[in-house]
Amino acid sequence: MPLFVDTIENKLIFDALEKSIFTTAKIMSNNLEIFEIVGGPIELKTYLARCITDNDGTASTFKLYADATVGGVTDICGVSGSLALAVAGTIINLVGGALATGPVITPTGAAISQLFPILVPTGTLKLTIAGGSTTGTWIHHLRYMPLSPKATVIASF
Where are the beta strands (DSSP E) in the chain? Predict the structure, then answer.
């Protein structure tokens, strides 16, 4: 990340461009770590999970949470509706203006993006999957902006 010195105020400044990252496809299970945030906090701009292979009738529900290196666990969203029979192409995404708002499940096609960014400290982003693991596989996408020069996100799988 390019660093430079502001000659007027003599402060170290860095180029904080938005970045995107995604995982490989995997079955979602309880406490599954999906991303690691290292080097400083980030501003989470967009998060979504995209179904790659169909789910069976297991009534799994989804919730995203941050497990901070310092400060503990914080829910990033409320609990989703059931993912039973979700088909390839289904999208789960954050859209709410509060951390308690559940994600939206869109069966096919386009989805509304997140309304407000979420500040996330260093640590990990994990899932609470209740009702049993999904049977289908999902890819997780994250768009973020680093809030310090060394902040970055690493896919956990």
Answer: 3-6, 11-14, 19-22, 26-27, 33-38, 42-51, 61-68, 72-75, 91-93, 104-106, 118-120, 123-130, 137-146, 152-155
Residue-number span of the structural domain to which 124 is assigned = 18-155
Closest by alpha carbon to 126, among 38, 59, 52, 64?
A: 64
Q: Please count the structural domains in the chain.
A: 1
- Reported as a single tens digit per residue, the pLDDT across 12-23 is 666 679 999 999
Confidence of residue 109 (pLDDT cuts 50, 70, 90): confident
Q: Is residue 50 one of the residues assigned to a domain? A: yes
Q: Is residue 139 part of a domain?
A: yes
Look at residue 115 and tell me if it is in a domain. yes
